[in-house]
Protein backbone atom coordinates (compact mmCIF):
# COMPACT_ATOMS: atom_id res chain seq x y z
CA UNK A 1 0.00 0.00 0.00
CA UNK A 2 1.13 3.56 -0.67
CA UNK A 3 0.79 6.11 2.14
CA UNK A 4 -1.45 9.11 1.28
CA UNK A 5 1.38 11.49 2.27
CA UNK A 6 5.15 11.10 2.54
CA UNK A 7 7.57 8.59 1.06
CA UNK A 8 7.40 5.50 3.23
CA UNK A 9 8.57 2.01 2.25
CA UNK A 10 6.21 0.29 4.69
CA UNK A 11 2.62 1.57 4.98
CA UNK A 12 -0.23 -0.64 6.20
CA UNK A 13 -3.68 -0.16 7.73
CA UNK A 14 -3.18 0.14 11.50
CA UNK A 15 -5.57 -2.78 12.26
CA UNK A 16 -3.01 -5.02 10.48
CA UNK A 17 -0.15 -3.74 12.69
CA UNK A 18 -1.48 -4.21 16.22
CA UNK A 19 1.63 -6.17 17.22
CA UNK A 20 3.91 -3.12 16.71
CA UNK A 21 1.68 -0.65 18.57
CA UNK A 22 1.74 -0.05 22.32
CA UNK A 23 -1.13 -1.80 24.17
CA UNK A 24 -3.28 1.34 24.66
CA UNK A 25 -2.97 2.30 20.98
CA UNK A 26 -3.63 -1.25 19.78
CA UNK A 27 -6.70 -1.44 22.05
CA UNK A 28 -8.02 1.87 20.66
CA UNK A 29 -7.54 0.69 17.07
CA UNK A 30 -9.31 -2.61 17.87
CA UNK A 31 -12.27 -0.72 19.39
CA UNK A 32 -12.28 2.02 16.70
CA UNK A 33 -15.64 3.38 15.56
CA UNK A 34 -16.93 6.57 14.05
CA UNK A 35 -17.12 8.37 10.72
CA UNK A 36 -13.63 7.27 9.66
CA UNK A 37 -13.04 3.54 9.13
CA UNK A 38 -10.20 1.96 11.12
CA UNK A 39 -8.65 0.88 7.80
CA UNK A 40 -8.03 4.60 7.08
CA UNK A 41 -5.62 4.78 10.03
CA UNK A 42 -2.31 4.03 8.32
CA UNK A 43 0.77 2.80 10.18
CA UNK A 44 4.11 3.70 8.58
CA UNK A 45 7.42 2.30 9.76
CA UNK A 46 10.01 5.00 10.48
CA UNK A 47 13.56 5.09 11.75
CA UNK A 48 13.58 6.42 15.34
CA UNK A 49 17.14 7.73 14.82
CA UNK A 50 15.91 10.38 12.37
CA UNK A 51 12.96 11.68 14.39
CA UNK A 52 14.19 15.30 14.35
CA UNK A 53 11.60 17.22 12.32
CA UNK A 54 13.97 18.68 9.71
CA UNK A 55 15.85 15.40 9.14
CA UNK A 56 12.58 13.44 9.15
CA UNK A 57 11.17 15.75 6.44
CA UNK A 58 14.30 15.41 4.30
CA UNK A 59 14.11 11.63 4.47
CA UNK A 60 10.36 10.94 4.26
CA UNK A 61 9.06 14.00 2.36
CA UNK A 62 9.14 17.75 2.90
CA UNK A 63 5.33 18.00 2.71
CA UNK A 64 5.23 16.22 6.07
CA UNK A 65 6.53 19.39 7.71
CA UNK A 66 3.10 20.96 7.06
CA UNK A 67 0.96 17.91 7.83
CA UNK A 68 2.62 16.60 10.99
CA UNK A 69 1.07 17.10 14.41
CA UNK A 70 2.36 16.80 17.95
CA UNK A 71 0.46 15.38 20.89
CA UNK A 72 1.63 16.68 24.26
CA UNK A 73 0.46 15.91 27.78
CA UNK A 74 -0.25 18.89 30.03
CA UNK A 75 -0.93 19.19 33.74
CA UNK A 76 -3.45 21.70 35.02
CA UNK A 77 -3.26 22.73 38.68
CA UNK A 78 -6.09 24.19 40.69
CA UNK A 79 -6.22 24.26 44.46
CA UNK A 80 -4.31 21.21 45.66
CA UNK A 81 -5.17 19.01 42.69
CA UNK A 82 -3.63 18.29 39.33
CA UNK A 83 -5.49 17.08 36.25
CA UNK A 84 -3.99 15.78 33.03
CA UNK A 85 -5.05 16.48 29.47
CA UNK A 86 -3.58 16.10 26.00
CA UNK A 87 -3.23 18.69 23.27
CA UNK A 88 -2.81 18.13 19.53
CA UNK A 89 -1.42 20.90 17.33
CA UNK A 90 0.31 21.03 13.97
CA UNK A 91 4.09 20.68 14.33
CA UNK A 92 4.59 24.14 12.82
CA UNK A 93 2.93 25.64 15.90
CA UNK A 94 3.25 25.33 19.65
CA UNK A 95 0.57 24.74 22.27
CA UNK A 96 -0.73 27.87 24.01
CA UNK A 97 -0.38 26.31 27.46
CA UNK A 98 -0.60 29.46 29.59
CA UNK A 99 -3.52 30.95 27.67
CA UNK A 100 -5.95 28.65 25.86
CA UNK A 101 -5.09 25.41 27.72
CA UNK A 102 -5.13 26.95 31.21
CA UNK A 103 -8.52 28.58 30.54
CA UNK A 104 -10.02 25.47 28.92
CA UNK A 105 -9.00 23.32 31.91
CA UNK A 106 -10.15 25.91 34.44
CA UNK A 107 -6.69 25.72 35.99
CA UNK A 108 -4.79 28.35 37.93
CA UNK A 109 -1.56 27.08 36.34
CA UNK A 110 -0.85 24.78 33.41
CA UNK A 111 2.42 23.28 32.23
CA UNK A 112 3.78 20.39 30.21
CA UNK A 113 3.67 17.17 32.21
CA UNK A 114 7.00 15.58 33.10
CA UNK A 115 8.31 12.81 30.87
CA UNK A 116 7.72 10.22 33.61
CA UNK A 117 4.13 11.37 34.10
CA UNK A 118 3.41 11.51 30.35
CA UNK A 119 4.78 8.03 29.65
CA UNK A 120 3.52 6.46 32.88
CA UNK A 121 -0.04 7.71 32.49
CA UNK A 122 -0.35 7.01 28.74
CA UNK A 123 1.56 3.73 28.46
CA UNK A 124 3.35 5.23 25.44
CA UNK A 125 6.95 6.10 24.67
CA UNK A 126 8.19 9.67 25.00
CA UNK A 127 8.43 11.20 21.55
CA UNK A 128 5.69 8.93 20.21
CA UNK A 129 2.64 9.94 22.26
CA UNK A 130 -0.51 9.91 20.18
CA UNK A 131 -4.10 10.96 20.90
CA UNK A 132 -5.29 7.50 19.83
CA UNK A 133 -5.40 5.37 22.97
CA UNK A 134 -5.16 8.05 25.65
CA UNK A 135 -7.10 7.58 28.89
CA UNK A 136 -10.78 8.09 27.96
CA UNK A 137 -11.45 10.44 30.88
CA UNK A 138 -8.81 12.97 29.80
CA UNK A 139 -9.78 16.13 27.97
CA UNK A 140 -8.25 16.02 24.47
CA UNK A 141 -7.79 19.54 23.12
CA UNK A 142 -7.38 19.56 19.33
CA UNK A 143 -6.45 22.62 17.32
CA UNK A 144 -8.99 23.22 14.53
CA UNK A 145 -6.13 23.38 12.00
CA UNK A 146 -5.44 19.67 12.69
CA UNK A 147 -9.07 18.73 11.99
CA UNK A 148 -8.97 20.83 8.78
CA UNK A 149 -5.87 19.02 7.43
CA UNK A 150 -6.71 16.20 5.01
CA UNK A 151 -4.06 13.73 6.27
CA UNK A 152 -2.10 14.18 9.51
CA UNK A 153 1.10 12.40 10.54
CA UNK A 154 1.12 11.74 14.30
CA UNK A 155 2.94 9.47 16.74
CA UNK A 156 2.06 5.79 16.99
CA UNK A 157 2.67 5.39 20.72
CA UNK A 158 6.29 4.37 20.09
CA UNK A 159 9.37 6.24 18.84
CA UNK A 160 9.50 3.87 15.88
CA UNK A 161 6.60 4.29 13.47
CA UNK A 162 3.93 6.91 12.90
CA UNK A 163 0.23 6.97 12.12
CA UNK A 164 -1.29 8.83 9.19
CA UNK A 165 -4.86 9.75 10.07
CA UNK A 166 -7.58 11.77 8.32
CA UNK A 167 -7.69 15.12 10.13
CA UNK A 168 -11.45 14.93 10.67
CA UNK A 169 -10.95 11.76 12.76
CA UNK A 170 -9.41 13.75 15.61
CA UNK A 171 -12.72 15.49 16.34
CA UNK A 172 -14.33 12.10 17.07
CA UNK A 173 -11.75 10.82 19.56
CA UNK A 174 -12.84 10.30 23.20
CA UNK A 175 -12.85 13.57 25.14
CA UNK A 176 -12.03 15.66 22.04
CA UNK A 177 -12.73 19.39 22.09
CA UNK A 178 -11.81 21.22 18.89
CA UNK A 179 -10.42 24.68 19.63
CA UNK A 180 -9.43 27.46 17.25
CA UNK A 181 -6.12 29.03 18.24
CA UNK A 182 -4.82 26.19 20.46
CA UNK A 183 -1.66 26.18 18.35
CA UNK A 184 0.14 29.50 18.12
UniProtKB/TrEMBL annotation:
Any Pfam family hit: tRNA_edit
Cited InterPro entries: YbaK/aa-tRNA-synt-asso_dom_sf, YbaK/aa-tRNA-synth-assoc-dom
Alphabetical list of CDD domains matching this protein: PA2301
Domain YbaK/aminoacyl-tRNA synthetase-associated: 56-168
Record-given protein name: YbaK/EbsC family protein
Organismal lineage: Bacteria, Bacillati, Actinomycetota, Actinomycetes, Kitasatosporales
